[in-house]
Amino acid sequence: MPQHPITDAKIRCCGDIPSMFTSRGHADGHPAARHGSGGDLCVDPGNGQVWGTAAVARGLAPAACRQTFHRGSGRQGQPDPGTCPGCVWLQGANDQWTWPGAHRGHPGQAGVYSWVQCHPEPTTASILSKKAVEGLSALVIDVKFGGAAVFPDQEKARELARALVGVGADLGLRVAAALTAMDNPLGRNVGHTLEVEEALLCLDGTGPPDLRDLVTRLGGVLLWLSGHAGSSAQGTARIATALDDGSARRRFEQMLEAQGVDSNLARSLCSGTPAQRRQLLPHAREQEELHAPADGTVESVQALPLALVLHELGAGRSRAGEPIRLGVGAELLVDVGQSLSRGTPWLRVHLDGPALSDSQRRALQAALVLSDRAPFTAPSPFAELILPPTAAQP
Fold first, then answer.
1. d(Cα 174, Cα 325) in Å, to the nearest integer?
2. C-alpha angle 68/71/74, rounded to 5°?
């Protein structure tokens, strides 16, 4: 079977299986672990050697690679999902536990898996293996945490960030990971068309301050890591200048044309007013505004309830191939930290179907959290920067 660059990079990312995974059964901490790939393992029962799926895919593992599963006090059987929330496994035909390659164009290379506890390294391998084969010299990764993120707290996000930075260094990449908060929506717009409009505002040198802050700081770190700025602060200033003088927007127009967008459309999108841009992009048929239920200061706007309702309205999909309503979304009409009077519009929902249901309206209203404290300036979503081992603090 021919080698694949991403598979090879995954082997490099996760070669030391025992130090990265806790397997249930006789594979636990076995010193004879072989090539790993994305966190999936199989074991040869003849000699107990542990093999990763990349080795199976490349025909390196023995054909008899099989694992007898254990759970509880040595009782044989399949892993019990109820006893290990967060564990990962795949089940194929005839209750065989097969590696994912059998479903990705490599039939006949099935092996039975050990029961692997969830760790950040499979995600690390999945992300960095693709970046490694692109020949990047520097990479900045935005790792989200908070109520609407995969990681609810900063510590868990930091664990993944450190894994990404450390493995990147082992692969010869200068990787930095920014930990950024995702409790409130970033910017004011949620939804495909609305977020494109907001990105264009940022390229105009305007747009929401939190979005601009994140763009300039992430870009500044990348310029510094790649040697195009003496520090991340200098890089941030260069990004801000490119936004303000229009050069970033002009480059974006060139990128659109290079990817096949009609030159007249690209020019109109990048040079038009917000109202003109909206006519060029898919937009929803209806709009509905929600009003503040009481006086108060906007303490937060919870991002997750907004995302769930908009998903129901068609802005997202649950499986590949489902249609997406590109114009569906929501505009925040308020900022976190501002004073708000009862009855003031705070959210405008863009939808294609009938009006919001009562339950959807209640869910959205519950996303608005008001307090009685004085108005305040919302903090930056940029919380922490994890740097590669050899890099000094910017």
1. 38
2. 80
For residue 42, the cross-strand partners are 51, 113
In CATH, the number for domain 122-280 is 3.40.1030.10
Query: Cα–Cα distance between 110 and 113 in angstroms, integer?
Result: 9
Give the largest CA-CA distance in the chain: 72
| Beta pairing class for 138-145 and 174-181 | parallel
Residue 357 C-alpha from the chain's centroid: 30
Nearest CA among 204, 192, 186, 349 for reference residue 269: 204
Beta carbons of 238 and 229 less than 8 angstroms apart? yes
Where do we find the tokens 């229009």?
A: 246
**How many CA atoms are closer than 13 Å to the CA of 149, on its beta-carbon side?**
21
As beta bridge partners, residue 151 has 145
Measured distance CA(349)–CA(162) in Å, rounded = 38
State pTM to two decimals: 0.71
Per CATH, is 286-371 categorized as 3.40.50.10420?
no
Per-residue pLDDT tens digits of the chain, which is 394 residues long: 333 444 444 444 443 333 333 333 223 333 333 333 333 444 444 444 444 444 434 444 444 433 322 222 222 333 333 333 332 333 333 333 333 332 333 333 233 333 233 345 567 777 787 777 788 889 999 999 999 998 899 999 999 999 899 888 888 889 999 999 999 999 999 999 999 999 999 999 999 999 999 999 999 999 999 999 999 999 999 999 999 999 999 999 999 999 999 999 999 999 999 999 999 999 999 999 999 999 999 999 999 999 999 999 999 988 888 899 999 999 999 999 999 999 999 999 999 988 999 999 999 999 999 999 999 999 999 999 999 887 665 6
Place of tokens 């479903």: 103
Question: Where do the structural domains in the chain lie, given as residue ranges?
Answer: 5-118, 122-280, 286-371
Give CA–CA dist 217/239, Å, rounded: 8
What is the rounded distance in angstroms from the CA atom of residue 379 to the CA atom of residue 171?
A: 35
